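Priority: medium. Attachment 1 of 2:
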């Protein structure tokens, strides 16, 4: 009796598998896109929070005024002298003096603008929108911490809203609030439940 060899995959079976894979990809891609955007929002928010904490810590350590400035750059990946202090900047600079137009300066205690730390957000902030506000509804771009770690200017930056720059409900907006005593807290504006630690 002749034994038949191994049987291959038929064209119909291959077409069914390809159709199933295509359907799965169509279902997963939108949620994967939202997930990636949410990660970008979280990364930018964490970077901004780190910069604010650095500015406050340096002010207390040095017992002098230290400023945190939001900056926008021509190329978001390069911290160069194209920087402009801006209320919707995604990158940041911690310095003792105004860093506008001098962001390429190396970290230094002596060279103007005496930059202590800086961060260009790069492509990770490409789809992220940041907006700085004072304690009310006016836009703000700088907060200056004194030697006690408290903001010294009432019209300075008190809130940062970080969200996706395109419309859509799938994205998670974040907020960084700077308290009058110098506390720096990240929260979610969409959370309304009392007792939830994410509530703003």
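Attachment 2 of 2:
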């Amino acid at each position: 009796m002749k034994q038949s060899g191994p049987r291959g995959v038929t064209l119909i079976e291959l077409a069914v598998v390809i159709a199933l894979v295509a359907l799965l990809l169509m279902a997963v891609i939108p949620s994967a896109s939202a997930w990636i955007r949410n990660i970008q929002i979280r990364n930018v928010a964490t970077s901004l929070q780190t910069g604010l904490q650095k500015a406050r810590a340096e002010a207390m350590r040095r017992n002098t005024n230290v400023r945190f400035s939001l900056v926008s750059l021509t190329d978001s990946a390069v911290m160069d002298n194209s920087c402009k202090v801006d209320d919707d900047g995604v990158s940041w600079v911690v310095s003792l003096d105004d860093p506008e137009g001098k962001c390429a300066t190396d970290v230094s205690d002596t060279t103007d603008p005496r930059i202590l730390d800086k961060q260009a957000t790069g492509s990770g902030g490409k789809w992220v929108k940041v907006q700085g506000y004072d304690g009310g509804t006016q836009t703000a771009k700088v907060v200056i911490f004194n030697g006690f770690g408290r903001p010294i200017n009432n019209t300075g930056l008190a809130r940062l809203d970080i969200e996706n720059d395109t419309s859509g409900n799938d994205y998670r907006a974040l907020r960084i609030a700077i308290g009058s005593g110098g506390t720096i807290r990240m929260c979610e504006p969409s959370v309304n439940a009392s007792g939830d630690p994410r509530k703003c």
